[in-house]
Design brief:
- The complex is a heterodimer.
- Chain A is α+β, with helices and mostly antiparallel strands.
- Chain A is built from 19 helices and 28 strands.
- Chain A has a 7-stranded mixed beta sheet, sandwiched between helices. Chain A has a 5-stranded mixed beta sheet with strand order 7-15-14-13-8. In chain A, strands 18-26-27-28 form a 4-stranded mixed beta sheet, sandwiched between helices.
- In chain A, strand 20, helix 14 and strand 21 form a beta-alpha-beta unit.
- In chain A, helix 17 crosses helix 18.
- The N and C termini of chain A lie far apart (68 Å).
- Chain B is of the alpha+beta class.
- Chain B folds into 2 domains: 75 residues, Beta-grasp domain (Ubiquitin-like (UB roll)), CATH 3.10.20.30; 70 residues, Orthogonal Bundle (DNA polymerase, domain 1), CATH 1.10.150.120.
- Helices cover 34% and strands 17% of the residues of chain B.
- Chain B is built from 5 helices and 5 strands; from the N terminus they run E-E-H-E-E-E-H-H-H-H.
- In chain B, strands 2-1-5-3-4 form a 5-stranded mixed beta sheet, with helices on both faces.
- In chain B, strand 1 and strand 2 form a beta hairpin.
- In chain B, helix 2 crosses helix 5.
- The longest helix of chain B has 16 residues.
- Classes of the chains: A alpha+beta, B alpha+beta.
- At the A-B interface, helix 1 and helix 17 of A face helix 1, helix 2, helix 3, helix 4 and helix 5 of B.
- The complex binds FE2/S2 (inorganic) cluster (2 copies).
- One FE2/S2 (inorganic) cluster binds next to loops of chain B.
Chain lengths: 775, 158
């Protein structure tokens, strides 16, 4: 029986369910010390003086270090030339929360005392926390040497005016994709132990080899003396592929104090120091005809980078521009972007990373076209879809060639499961009944870019390459260990890879284990990001298993005196087709593989080991259709998601249970962005307002609905599994479905757009103005 | 200021001299070295640190160790049952994929254990409200709800 496609329970669970998993902060080696940053209390200031003398008096404090102590070391990797981020603020601080100094103490309580005892004298500068303030003519510059707060501009090649003028109608829209905090429930943590044999660092990170490559180069030590271990990791969502200063500073502190040094953020520290996501503003225009056919689309993105240009932060508007056309056949799409620095936490990848922003823009525009033409939004979508026969479909950007999909089928299934007509009737019936909530129905049909990726795709973000590695080792008893370059942290990749390998090798699921997250044992790796693990490492494992099995069959054939072509493998043994009872166990084949006297002459001992660096010829393109019904309380303006239908096409599904879990989690984050979350700053001072979980609204169980899920499968043609990846889909597809539903509910008040997060007061304002107007 | 504190955790006594300001969660993690109980915030919002104190679900980051002196604490390490050693609620999370990264999970399990002890057949809305103080960033909660329902159904059968 094939395990691929089956609802297999996770290998990962027992350790996590019993408290026996190890997260970084659980480690406490002998003689361990604890480090904490002293951070800027101002959003923008020159540092006049740092007084560490009182901190040094506290018993148990081992030292306090400032930028001066790191002057022989380079800036942090990535970023833009001459505008890189130093490991500790040097002379100037650029956001409230930027690390200025670091203390090491005997325990975390003493470290906190020492942090409070460090006195810093600042010369406070005006702060710019918004794009508008940063671009004002007299704005205070973050990098005076650059001459502007706008670091990068990629202009429009053709301004589209002719195409727009040729359209029956055109409409403009300005949308804000607000700043979100990533908030994995495990904050950033690392434990560095630099002893005579070299450096070992346990880090909560999504890409251990990537970190190893950068840390060893930064410290100027050989890679074989720089071992990075990512044990159990408590969620990442993109924020744990960022080169945060702790990963570079803690090793040196360990060297300097001669003891292991542990760093573990508090949530308040994490809210300010972990990179944020999104924070784009879009100026959009769409040209269309009276039949709702879209002819031209213009997108200009302004990306708020925060205080420094993170390499993934710089990539966000690129991906947004790439995906501007969504799943529609639009003759002319033109895009542009610029990146702006502000006195806020740096912005980088957050689940979806640039694609949720694109989807939100185009899906809002399609609804606007429906509104202006008076055609049903489902029908407008159907009229503009790229059709199944159009694949491979070349988009406006030559990097993006959609590989497969079936948007009409996704839409049909979504409409069916939503019970669209009934909901429209309910909406109509409730509209003028003030005892009933206002109903709104919204859709989002979307395609995203995933499976990063083809050669060159990750190099631009500073990665070594874009393949993913697998290494399969058969032990002498016929059990298998698979070392993978991915570094999963909740995705269930151990289970997924074991399912694939079990099917291919005929070794039972329970006799396969997966090793990852350790540069000391895994040959090389890229990491878990960009919805790549199943398409990349899953494909790598499938092909490597097949190659290994060819040699195993040679051995089995030799032992059975049968032709290897007649062998079938299943249930941990090889048998001869058509000759019942003639079989040899995997255990015996594995044993023979280490015994030269039992091997066929062309094979050598240890032959049952296979490794593969899987390269992909293209990205993958998951797609879907999401439908949402909201109910709005007329008195408070509170929005409740009453129904959420999720139809996904992620190609081949390896494990439906895990695929569903990924979608649920992503959708929860998408609904949270639509309704609740926003990282806010006081515009006059740049002080963060939402710097803990009291002020920053993460939804809990009563705030979210149940989901109705369905599926359409078009296999990905670019990898041997046919899998497209599903880690980010939910977060990409859901925000516009929710906002489209809210705008739909308020449309009879003349509302054409409402920015996220749609908190009750925003809706209440619309409702109270409308009621006043009518009385 | 230090005080000698004696707390029973999962029916074993732990006695240490601790600073008065030591949080119960740090006593559990760093003195008793039971690291299954996690920390996810500094404002008592996330519930990752949830344990049972004399049977009641509490956030162990909101109590000092000295406040728990002489009391009984249960943590995730103390959960046991007939599902290969797992309790019904632990097995429910496994069966219904109620966890992904697993970081919020110990706190969720303890909150759910307290819920089922009090209300053996909670409705969906009762489950969701009982978990209001526990944040999960990975699952979107529906599968956690299903996990609790699985456990509730199993307890009835047994
Ligand atoms: S750590 Fe106790 S509630 Fe968050
Ligand atoms: S499983 Fe990751 S936070 Fe809940």
């Amino acid at each position: 029986m094939s395990l691929v496609g089956a609802r297999v329970l996770r290998k990962e669970d027992p350790r996590l369910l019993t408290g026996r998993a190890t997260f970084v902060d659980d480690l406490l080696p002998a003689n361990c010390t604890f480090a904490q940053f002293i951070v800027s209390e101002h959003a923008h200031a020159d540092i006049r003086h740092i007084d560490i003398s009182q901190a040094l008096q506290i018993p148990g404090v081992l030292g306090v270090w400032t930028a001066l102590d790191f002057r022989d070391y380079p800036d942090l990797p990535g970023g833009l030339p001459d505008l890189e981020r130093p490991p500790l603020a040097t002379g100037r601080v650029r956001w409230a929360g930027e690390p200025i100094a670091v203390v090491v103490a005997e325990d975390r309580y003493i470290a906190a005392d020492a942090v409070a005892a460090v006195k810093i004298d600042y010369n406070v500068l005006p702060a710019v926390s918004t794009i508008r303030a940063a671009l004002a003519p007299d704005a205070q510059l973050l990098f005076p040497q650059h001459g502007s707060n706008c670091l990068v501009t990629v202009p429009m090649l053709d301004d589209l005016d002719r195409a727009m003028e040729a359209c029956d109608e055109r409409a403009q829209l300005r949308v804000v994709n607000q700043r979100c905090a990533v908030v994995p429930i495990e904050t950033m943590a690392c434990l560095a132990d630099w002893n005579i044999d070299g450096l070992t660092m346990w880090a909560t990170f999504q890409a251990p080899h990537h970190l190893r490559n950068k840390v060893s180069a930064w410290l100027n030590i050989p890679q074989n003396q720089c071992r990075i271990i990512t044990p159990n990791v408590g969620g990442g969502f993109g924020a744990k592929i960022v080169f945060a200063p702790e990963f570079f500073i803690m090793p040196l502190l360990s060297k300097w104090v001669g003891r292991p040094v542990k760093f573990s953020q508090s949530r308040t520290e994490a809210m300010l120091q972990m990179t944020h996501g999104r924070d784009q503003e879009h100026d959009l225009e769409v040209g269309f005809d009276r039949n709702g056919r879209i002819k031209a689309l213009r997108m200009v993105v302004t990306q708020n980078l925060g205080a420094y240009a993170d390499p993934t932060g710089l990539g966000l508007p690129v991906l947004t521009n790439w995906m501007a056309g969504g799943c529609y056949k639009i003759a002319k799409v033109q895009t542009a972007f610029r990146c702006v620095v502000t006195n806020t936490t740096p912005v980088a990848a957050y689940r979806g990373a640039g694609r949720p922003e694109a989807t939100y823009a185009v899906e809002r525009l399609v609804d606007l076209v429906a509104r202006r033409t008076g055609i049903d939004p489902v029908e407008v979508r159907r009229r503009n879809f790229i059709e199944p026969q159009d694949f491979p479909y070349e988009t406006h950007n030559k990097a993006v060639i959609y590989d497969s999909g079936n948007f009409p089928a996704l839409m049909d299934e979504c409409v069916r499961l939503l019970d669209y007509e009934t909901e429209r009737k309910r909406q109509e019936a409730f509209r003028n009944d003030s005892s009933k909530p206002l109903i709104g129905i919204g859709f989002s049909t979307w395609i995203e870019i995933a499976g990063f990726g083809p050669n060159g795709s990750l190099e631009g973000f500073g990665h070594l390459a874009s393949w993913e590695s697998t290494q399969i080792r058969i032990h002498p008893d016929g059990s298998a260990t698979i070392f993978i370059g991915s570094a999963p942290h909740g995705q269930g990749t151990e289970t997924i890879v074991s399912q694939i390998a079990s099917d291919e090798l005929g070794i039972s699921f329970d006799r396969i284990n997966i090793v990852y997250g350790d540069t000391g044992t895994v040959i090389q790796g890229i990491g878990t990001l960009g919805s790549r693990s199943t398409p990349m490492v899953g494909s790598a494992t499938k092909v490597a298993s097949q190659r290994l099995l060819e040699r195993a069959k040679k051995i089995a054939g030799h032992l059975l005196e049968a032709s290897e072509d007649d062998l079938v493998v299943a249930d941990d043994s090889f048998s001869v087709r058509g000759t019942p009872g003639k079989k040899v166990g995997w255990a015996d084949v594995a044993l023979a593989s280490f015994q030269p006297l039992r091997l066929p002459p062309e094979l050598q001992a240890g032959t049952l080991e296979e490794r593969l660096f899987h390269e992909s010829p293209n990205f993958s393109y998951p797609s879907g259709a999401y439908g949402c019904v909201v109910e709005i309380d007329r008195r408070s303006g509170k929005v409740r998601v009453a129904k959420m239908v999720l139809i996904d096409d992620c190609g081949t599904v390896i494990n439906p249970l895990l695929a569903e879990g990924q979608v649920h989690g992503g959708v929860a984050q998408g609904i949270a962005q639509a309704l609740f979350e926003e990282m806010q700053y006081d515009p006059s001072t740049g002080q963060p307002i939402t710097s803990n979980l009291i002020d920053y609204l993460i939804p809990s169980a009563p705030d979210l609905p149940n989901y109705i899920a369905g599926r359409v499968n078009t296999p990905c043609p670019n990898n041997p599994l046919g899998a497209k990846g599903i880690g980010e889909s939910g977060a990409i597809g859901s925000p516009p479905a929710v906002v489209n539903a809210i705008v739909d509910a308020l449309s009879h008040f003349g509302v054409e757009h409402i920015d996220m997060p749609v908190l009750p007061e925003k809706v209440w304002k619309v409702l109270s103005t409308a009621t006043k107007g009518s009385t | 200021m230090t005080t000698r504190v004696n707390i029973s955790i999962n029916a074993r006594r732990y006695e240490y001299e601790v600073e008065d300001r030591t949080l119960l969660v740090h006593f559990i993690r760093e003195q008793a070295r039971l690291t299954g109980t996690h920390i996810g915030c500094d404002s008592s919002n996330c519930g990752a640190c949830t344990v049972l104190l004399d049977g009641q679900a509490v956030k162990s980051c909101t109590l000092l160790a000295v406040q728990a002196d002489g009391q009984n604490v249960s943590t995730v390490e103390g959960l046991t049952g007939s599902f290969n050693g797992l309790s019904p609620i632990q097995e429910g999370f496994r069966q219904e994929h109620g966890l992904q990264c697993g970081y919020c999970t110990p706190g969720m399990l303890m909150a759910c254990t307290a819920l089922l002890a009090e209300n053996a057949q909670p409705s969906e809305s009762e489950i969701r409200h009982a978990l209001e103080g526990n944040i999960c960033r990975c699952t979107g909660y529906e599968m956690i709800v299903r996990s609790v329902q699985w456990a509730a159904a199993k307890q009835v059968q047994q």
